[in-house]
Amino acid sequence: MKKKLFAILLGIVMVVGLLPVTALAADPTDYGIWVDGVQVTSENKDNLFSGTVSYDPTTHTLSLNNATLNNDAMSDYGIKTNIPSTLKIRLNGTNSITRTDPGGGMGIDLNYSNSVEITGDGTLVINVIGKNYDGISTGADVKISDKARVIINSKGGLGIAGRMVEIDGATVDSTGLYAGIDAHWLKIINGADVTLKATQDGRNGAYIWKDQEGNGGDIELAASKVKATSYYPALFAAGNLTVNGGEVSCTSTADGAIWAKGNILIKGGAKVTTDGKYPMGGNGSFTVEEAEIDAKNTNENNIPAIFDESVPVIADGYHLNYAKAVDSEGTKIDLLSSGTQYFALYKNVHFITKAVYPVSFVVTPDGLTNVVVKVNGQEVTGSVSLEAGTYPVEVTADNCKAYTGNITITADAATHTQTIAMTYLPADYTKVDEAIAKANALKKDDYKDFSGVETAVKAVVRGKNITEQSEVDKMAKAIEDAINALVRRSSGGDDSDPTYAIEVGKDIRNGTVTANRRYAERGDTVTITVKPDDGFKLDDLTVTDKNGNELKLTDKGNGKYTFTMPASKVEIKATFVKEVETSPFSDVSTSAYYYEAVKWAQEKGITGGIGNGLFGPNQPCTRAQIVTFLWRAAGSPVVNYAMNMSDVPEGSYYAEAVRWALSEDITTGTTENTFSPDSECTRAQAVAFLFRYAASEAVTLQELVSGFSDADSVPGYALPAMNWALAEEIVQGNGSKLMPNDSCTRAQIVTFLFRAYQDK
Questions:
Q1: Which of 73, 348, 467, 649 is the most buried (most CB within 10 A)?
Q2: Mean predicted lDDT score pLDDT of the chain
Q3: Can you tell me the distance from the alpha carbon of 170 to that of 191, in angstroms, rounded to the nearest whole number?
Q4: Cα(503)–Cα(483) distance, rounded to whole angstroms?
Q5: Cis before residue 365, ω within 30 degrees of 0?
Q6: Which residues contact 11 (CB under 8 A, 6 or more apart)?
Q7: Do 259 and 282 contact (CB within 8 A), yes or no?
Q8: For 370, left (φ over 0), alpha (ψ -120 to 50), or beta?
Q9: Rounded to whole angstroms, what are the CA distances from 591 to 165, 582, 613, 757?
Q10: At what angle do helices 746-757 and 623-633 cross, to 10 degrees?
């Protein structure tokens, strides 16, 4: 019976051994993560702890959704992992990790080489009471970003321990027995809100130390709010500490609130408040740009609130606009009125620095005397340093109206030049008005010819300034002379010297015709002045007597014609016709888009063409030609500049242009000592040259390049120039394209120059 039973069992075993492998259940995959003592596997990854925890193995993302992890009996750790990658923890809702057992472990524990990144818009509260156990612990990096909010209370260890700790825009409140954060690098940026605290004496709110190789030790705080409290310096950096904007408040109960063994730099309008028993400072340099610093200490000795190997240095381009201190006896001192910046002399100090910009004034026109410039009521000589803002300006000069206005200084440029255009006082027209009044009081029919007086009155030009007073005086004299030259008609109708009317046709168009008198005696010489309108020329001019006979005209030049008055009235008629414009170059059509630009460039002496009456509009422009055109447009200035370009021979037509362009930083050449004058210039390069001269001051530019299909092909160096050229309508593109890397033709460069300089 036993043998039979054994045979049956053996048969069953053999049958099972012959079944296919797929018929057996596979073992679940272990992902190397434990959550509150539960190992995460392929079977439970989507529904841990009633669905409040899930894990995506492809992205290594652990999602917490209102999860509560507090089972001390199950595990020493809230979250533990040994995955060979960065663990990403995404927060949704309110989550917590609590380790209440004194023998319990870390809130979040990672292998020495594993980093962790916490994101999402939820909250994670970590409470750990065990001795030497941390809220978050790793030998690698910790990053908390997005809108995540992390609150840590580690009663027996560190709040956060890692190599690089970066808090980017998130909210973190970390309290530890030994430190809120212990790392080799600390970065808090982009509007983060961070509170750090160490509860044990002799510890730091943030302790940032160098690794075994001597790397690290740096703290970077940028545009964020940081509050730190501890026994020793609330922020300790074994390297450098930088605060760039934001608000930083540090308190130390037994030492300096902030200390760095390297350099300290505070800038960007940062507000830093420190309160300690001893000074804030460090072993390296202490540099302040734009910032507000309120430093206090509580020691009873005359120890400064800010300490350095030397006093804090206000960086170039910045100045004090508020500075007060308190000495050891409690006396308040205004550092600005006392003329000192030595903060090391004082117990407490509060000072504000602002960026300043050198501002110079150019008053036009040239040649003014006794010019006085006042800014905010204070006279300025040479350059004055001003903060960004708007300031009232007053300018006075001899023979000019006083100027009052505002200037606005912005932070977009290192230097500012303000041009003030003065207006001359108006000329005195008293004598002119008296002469006109005298003429108006006369009866013109009492005189043989009153036209001379009328012409002199019509010739008066108003609006002259005091520098043109002599011209105004000549106008008054001309009227007086014309009045004095008048000849009265004889009374009683027995005029031995009869006069005859001179009439100008009323239907004359496209020009003006005037006679120097309205009446003349037989044999008098009458002068006719002809002035065509723009674009027109005189076609025909006739003078006929009362019988229709045409009189002989003598051309005196400059639109002047004369005739001898007959013994009858005369009529003057004229016709004007359009001028046919001719191009200065045979290969430039008057209908070409660049015609006006080429004509302007030729008239201004910018170019004379390529010879034989040709301009060569479609020829590529070389670097030498472009800087020469630009130099001539600028007035061909002569500069004293040492030029070291081996391929620019002295005496060449472009040598002085290259010298000027180098001195104005319009170009630096293609290498340190070559200019490549014969190389073809692209459209982007040509626009960059023009921008560096015409827009030498920084300008606020809207992004216009992006509207073209080939925007991505615009070289980076040329982007500001191309945006400027589009905004000023100097460059218009070809349809949807800018063609920045095409060769710039001669027609294109003179067009660019014409659009930029035609009104200058």
A1: 348
A2: 87
A3: 8
A4: 22
A5: yes
A6: none
A7: yes
A8: left
A9: 68, 11, 18, 21
A10: 20
**Consecutive H or E run containing 158:** strand 158-161
CB-CB contact of 654 with 622 (8 Å): no
Q: How far is CA 531 from CA 478, 519, 556, 559, 574, in A?
A: 21, 21, 14, 6, 11
Residue written as token pair 């003179």? 750
pLDDT digits (tens, 9 = 90+) for 478-535: 999 999 888 877 644 444 567 888 999 888 999 999 999 888 888 999 999 999 998 8
Strand pairing category for 525-532 and 511-515: antiparallel
In this structure, are residues 363 and 420 in contact, taking their beta carbons and an 8 Å threshold?
yes
Task: Name which of 663, 671, 625 is nearest 646 in CA terms.
Answer: 671
Task: Write the pLDDT tens digit of every residue in 352-366.
Answer: 988 888 888 999 988
169-183, 492-506, 650-664, range with greatest mean pLDDT: 169-183
Q: Is the dihedral of CA 251, 252, 255, 259 positive or negative?
A: negative
In the 8-state DSSP scheme, what is residue 286?
A: E
Better-predicted residue by pLDDT, 84 or 239:
239
Contact 101, 77 (CB under 8 A): no
Tokens of 617: 């509009």
**Token digits of residue 578:** 């359009």
For residues 597 and 607, give the distance between their C-alpha atoms in angstroms, rounded to a whole number.
11
Place of tokens 């809230």: 78
Range among 76-80, 215-219, 643-647, 654-658 rated most confident:
215-219
| 3-state SS assignment for residue 541 | strand
Residue 700 has a CB neighbour count (10 Å cut-off) of 7
Virtual CA dihedral for 517, 520, 524, 526, nearest 10 degrees?
30
User: In angstroms, rounded to a whole number, what is the distance separating the alpha carbons of residues 749 and 658?
Assistant: 17
